[in-house]
Amino acid sequence: MARSSKKSPAKTVEDAVAGAETATTANKSSHVATKGQTTMSDSILSFSEDISKAEAPPVLPAGEYTAEIRSVERKTSQNSGNNYLAIQFYVPSDQYPADYVDGDPDGMSMTYNRLVVEDDAKSRHRVRKFCEAIGAKMGRELNVADWVGLTATVSVKIGSWEGEDRAEIDKVVAS
């Protein structure tokens, strides 16, 4: 079924993207957009509420949560130049405390950036302790991609970023 490239003005970002996709179908030289991405023609953003009244949502309370590793990425610290791993943990909503009713019903992701992976005694020991906590294989070489899907207990504390409270992983402990 062919779509018309003429549409009424977009009401939401999704409508604008759908309009951009329709225009792309009609004109192959147009920028291709996918859902969730914006294009140059997507200059209007629509929200369900006035953002001038938007407040920060409540943060996940401090405590211990069972979490699953979703990704592991090697990075280099801009300050020290040390190599570290950015490990993304997923906390499912069924782990939320009963009184935490405003949390994302789909669960939440949190990144642990404290595992330095230099080849020195201190780093090797910390990596060993981390591997024990997540139940990962250990040896002279580690394939951190194998960590994806493993679970551990994460100890969450309340920190601050740009003047606002936020939940952050303090440490990863053996379950």
In short:
This protein folds into two domains: about 15-55, no CATH class; about 65-175, OB fold (Dihydrolipoamide Acetyltransferase, E2P), CATH 2.40.50. Helices cover about 15% and strands about 30% of the residues.
Key descriptive features of the protein:
175 residues, alpha+beta, OB fold (Dihydrolipoamide Acetyltransferase, E2P), five-stranded antiparallel β-sheet, 30% strand
Structure description:
This protein is an alpha+beta fold and 175 residues long. The chain has two domains: 13-53, no CATH class; 63-173, OB fold (Dihydrolipoamide Acetyltransferase, E2P), CATH 2.40.50. 16% of the residues lie in helices and 30% in strands. It has two helices and five strands, in the order αβββαββ. The chain has helices spanning 13-26, 121-134; strands at 63-76, 83-91, 108-116, 151-161, 164-173. A five-stranded antiparallel β-sheet has the order 3-2-1-4-5, with helices on one face. Strand 1 and strand 2 form a beta hairpin. 14% of the residues are buried. The model is unreliable at 1-33 (pLDDT under 50).
